[in-house]
Write a structure and sequence with these properties.
Radius of gyration: 21 Å
CATH architecture: 2-Layer Sandwich
Helix content: 25-40%
Oligomer: single chain
Order of helices and strands: HHHEEEEEEEEEEHHHEH
Number of helices: 7
């Protein structure tokens, strides 16, 4: 996820060359604001799934899985709020989450645009405006979707959310290569652009290790805390609710 964060937040490289691209990605990681132990506990959520159901099929909890200790404290879900302190992204929160036993398998980036600071159509009774959202689908259904608010035709002020959707499979008529297929091909060609460089890996692990150290010193007491087949623990919903936001449902 930190790799995807870098690709979203990095500045345009001066050339599409391996070291130039990776230089920009490292700049992003080094611009992420370090967090105190108190901030880590406030801005991270960990979880472990209990028994539940997916697609109508019952599935066991993590502690009932084969070869898992009955009292295991291993996380199967994590959410994290980050701040990038540079000229472009200062004040813009980035929310990361990953989990197992979700309702479906999906990897995507959702970019939520700011809403206007004032309600221009207040006199027409239009007080709440949903933000526009650009969604980059990484897998399994690669594509790009844009959700916008559009005024319905007619004299009244009624806005409806509409979605413009592009899918690689529908447009090009063929399946895109799996991620590892592309990486193996790049390795054969000697192209390291999509591979993490050593300083990038170290910068990422420096951030993650700080979180893991705090988690280790403050073991959770509420695991398991979400059912299999749901989108994670309630604490993850509260993490965004504190900022007046909510997770997007894929």
């Amino acid at each position: 996820m930190l790799q995807l964060l870098c690709l979203v937040a990095m500045e345009p490289p001066v050339a599409f060359e391996a070291n130039v691209v990776r230089d920009e990605k490292v700049k992003v990681l080094r611009s992420i604001r370090p967090q105190t132990p108190e901030e880590i506990l406030r801005d991270t959520v960990r979880g472990q799934y209990a028994a539940g159901s997916i697609d109508g099929r019952p599935v066991p909890g993590y502690r009932q899985e084969p070869n898992v200790a009955p009292a295991s404290g291993r996380e199967t879900y994590a959410a994290w709020k980050l701040q990038i302190e540079n000229w472009r992204w200062a004040g813009v929160p980035f929310y990361l989450r990953a989990g197992k036993r979700m309702p479906k398998r999906v990897t995507e980036i959702a970019i939520t645009f700011k809403t206007p600071p004032i309600a221009l159509f207040r006199r027409a009774g239009f007080l709440v405006q949903e933000p526009n959202v650009l969604v980059l689908r990484i897998q399994p259904d690669e594509g790009i979707a844009l959700r916008i608010g559009a005024k319905q035709p007619g004299p009244t002020m009624r806005v409806e959310t509409v979605k413009m959707d592009f899918r690689y499979s529908e447009h090009f008529g063929e399946k895109t290569p799996d991620a590892y297929e592309r990486l193996l091909l790049d390795a054969l060609h000697g192209d390291p652009t999509l591979f993490a460089r050593r300083d990038e890996v170290e910068a990422a692990w420096e951030l993650v290790t700080a979180v893991l150290d705090v988690w280790r010193e403050n073991p959770p007491r509420d695991l398991p805390n979400y059912e299999a087949g749901t989108w994670g623990p309630e604490a993850a919903m509260e993490l965004l609710a504190r900022d007046g936001r909510r997770w997007r449902r894929p």
